[in-house]
Specification:
alpha/beta, globular
C-alpha cells in the first residue's frame, strides 16, 4: 500500500509541475495540432505536400484550391481521391483549404471569385474538410474600402446558408482589425462565417494580437503561426503569449505554419519552426 501511495504522490507532483509549467499535453477538443501551408513548403496544390509534412514531423497541411483558367482542378473526383489516398498513406490530415487566387481575383468585385467560393464548399463536403480560408489581400484588400466590405457582406449572406448546410466554415483573413471582422460576422449573421487569425499579419498592422485573440474567441476558426522577422523563437513573435491567449479562449484545432523567413532552406527552416512550436504545443504520442 505504501508503495502504491508513493507512486500516486509522485504522479501528482509531476502532473502539477507539468501543468504549472504549461507543458501538459492538451487532450480532446482543446489539443492544438500543428500543420503547414502547402505554399510555405513549395507544394502549392500538390498532394506531395502531405508526404513532406510528415517528413517534417507535422500532422496536417493547409491545401491550396488552385485555379486553372476559370476552373478549380479540385472539383475533379480523381484529384480529390489522390489527396485522400495521400491522407491515408501518410496519416497527415488536411487542416483546411485556401483559395489564394482571391488575392488577385477579388471576392469583393469579381463574379468568378464568388463562384469559386461556392464551389469550394462542395469540395470541402466531398473531402471531409470543414474550413476554407477566404483571403482578402492584394487586390482583394478590404482595408479602407467600405464599399468592398458591403459587397462582401452581401455575397457572404448568399453563400452562408449553403456552407451551414454542408457543415463548412468560411474563414475570413484580412488586414482588418478584430472589431471590423466582428462587424462583418454580425452583419452576415451566420455561424458558418468566422475568422482565420494570422498573428503576424495582425502584429504588422499594429494590433494587439493577444487582446484580439481573446476578443474574437470562438469566432476564430483556425490560426496561422508566423513570424515576419526570423525563425520561430528567434524573431518578434511571442508564441508563448500566443499560446496563453489560445488557452484562455479554449482554442482547440490546427495551428498552421505560414513561414516568411527561410534562412536555412525550405525543409530545414520549417523543421526548425515545427520543432520550436512542439516545445509549446507538445505532440500527443500515438
Amino acid at each position: 500500500m505504501k508503495t502504491g501511495r508513493c507512486a500516486v504522490q509522485v504522479f501528482l507532483i509531476v502532473f502539477l509541475f507539468l501543468t504549472a509549467a504549461g507543458f501538459a499535453v492538451e487532450k480532446g477538443k482543446n489539443r492544438v495540432r500543428l500543420g503547414v501551408c502547402d505554399w510555405t513548403i513549395e507544394k502549392t496544390g500538390d498532394p506531395a505536400a502531405l508526404e513532406l509534412a510528415k517528413k517534417l514531423g507535422l500532422e496536417g497541411v493547409q491545401v491550396s484550391i488552385s485555379v486553372s483558367g476559370d476552373t478549380l482542378p479540385l472539383l475533379q473526383p480523381k484529384l480529390q481521391k489522390t489527396y485522400l489516398d495521400a491522407v491515408k498513406l501518410t496519416g497527415v490530415g488536411i487542416a483546411s483549404f485556401c483559395i489564394g487566387q482571391l488575392n488577385s481575383i477579388p471576392y469583393k468585385s469579381d463574379p468568378r471569385a464568388e463562384k469559386w467560393l461556392e464551389q469550394s464548399i462542395g469540395i470541402c463536403k466531398a473531402m471531409g474538410v470543414g474550413i476554407v480560408l477566404v483571403p482578402f489581400f492584394g487586390k482583394g484588400d478590404l482595408l479602407n474600402d467600405p464599399q468592398g466590405v458591403k459587397t462582401v457582406v452581401a455575397r457572404l449572406k448568399r453563400v452562408a446558408p449553403k456552407a451551414e448546410k454542408a457543415g463548412v466554415v468560411l474563414a475570413l483573413e484580412s488586414q482588418l482589425s478584430a472589431e471590423d471582422h466582428l462587424k462583418i460576422i454580425d452583419q452576415v449573421g451566420s455561424p458558418a462565417v468566422r475568422v482565420y487569425y494570422d498573428v503576424a499579419n495582425s502584429q504588422k498592422m499594429g494590433y494587439n494580437i493577444f487582446k484580439e485573440i481573446r476578443l474574437l474567441g470562438k469566432r476564430i476558426a483556425q490560426m496561422h503561426a508566423k513570424d515576419s522577422k526570423d525563425l520561430y523563437g528567434k524573431g518578434s513573435m511571442d508564441f508563448a503569449a500566443v499560446r496563453k491567449a489560445m488557452e484562455d479562449i479554449g482554442y482547440g484545432g490546427w495551428l498552421v505554419m505560414e513561414g516568411t523567413k527561410m534562412p536555412l532552406g525550405i525543409e530545414e527552416s520549417n523543421r526548425f519552426d515545427a520543432n520550436y512550436l512542439k516545445t509549446l504545443f507538445p505532440v500527443e504520442s500515438k
